[in-house]
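Why does this matter for the project? Reviewers at the last site visit asked to see concrete outputs rather than summary tables. In response, this paragraph embeds two records directly. Each consists of the residue sequence and, immediately after it, the corresponding structure tokens. Nothing has been edited or filtered.
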Amino acid sequence: GSGVYCSVESAVPRESGLGTSGSIGVALVHALNILTGSDVLYLDDQSKYTIASQANTLENKGLSITSGGQDQLAAMFGGFNDIAFTAESVTAQAITVPRDAQSELEKRSLVVYTGRSRVSGENLDRMMKNYSARVSKTLAALHGIKELGEEMRNALEQGKVSRVGQLLGTS
């Protein structure tokens, strides 16, 4: 029979929480779409949403790994984005960050692997169950995350790099 074999090697450890599976899924779906002639190399926003959705479905249903879709959107759109989830849709809106603030963020940022893996799908499953049951603690936490995201967006747009750092330290 015919088919495609794909193998991926990465220096990033499994379950590191860096969104690697979402990035790999987006790359794989886009490559397969190009191979079958259903995608072009350069994509409009709607095509990017479609590929991100296909990659998310691949991860959720094909691999039985719960994923919310934000990693796929981040990989598909790149850069700084405000990703919003509603009952009807998921959107990614580009955040314009001043060039000097981008440079400063790069200078001040360091990604460190702690050696502790995490299975984000387990957290997402629990959160969705509690959200559906309208558990007040979960609803308050999600509202807090939304407010924090809005503050982060404002700080990024205003180039307030120190404020971004402070917000990242918020739990």
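We now turn to the second protein, recorded in exactly the same manner.
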Amino acid sequence: NKGVTITVDDEDGGITQTIQMNGKTIVTTCKGQDDTSTITQAPDSIKVDCKLFSVSAETVDIKAEKSISGTSKKTVALKSDDAMTIESGKTLKMTSDDKMTVTGKALTVNASSGAVGVSAASDLTLKGKNTTVEAASAATIKGMNVSAEGSVKAAIEGQMVSVSGQQIALG
């Protein structure tokens, strides 16, 4: 075998450190009594296997020519003490197999061109202290049964108001 292996044993601490260079890869291993971490470096890749991987820096910049992916079998948390931006040059998709919550002091949903669609497989509730639904040209409410109710006052206004149906009950 061509290559070099450097090993340092700390018998009192139960830790063995090894660097193996074989002309193709460099493998750095730190083995303790319970855990082992390994860094494998090849000309086209670097792989880190460990129990905890931590980076502490003033700035972290991650770039990829093709794709970036991350997977966790448990929790993923991203937090910023200042502003945070998630931006996509194409489609942005967020899905959840369970509940999804979006919370903030204010929330704006805006489509710069095209429509905004909101749908639910079950009930859909829009609620606010004051709620306004406004359309630039036409607003339509459709349903098998449609109710409009005001606990103090209900008003329908317009230049022209029409009421039609098979049976009409007023009052």
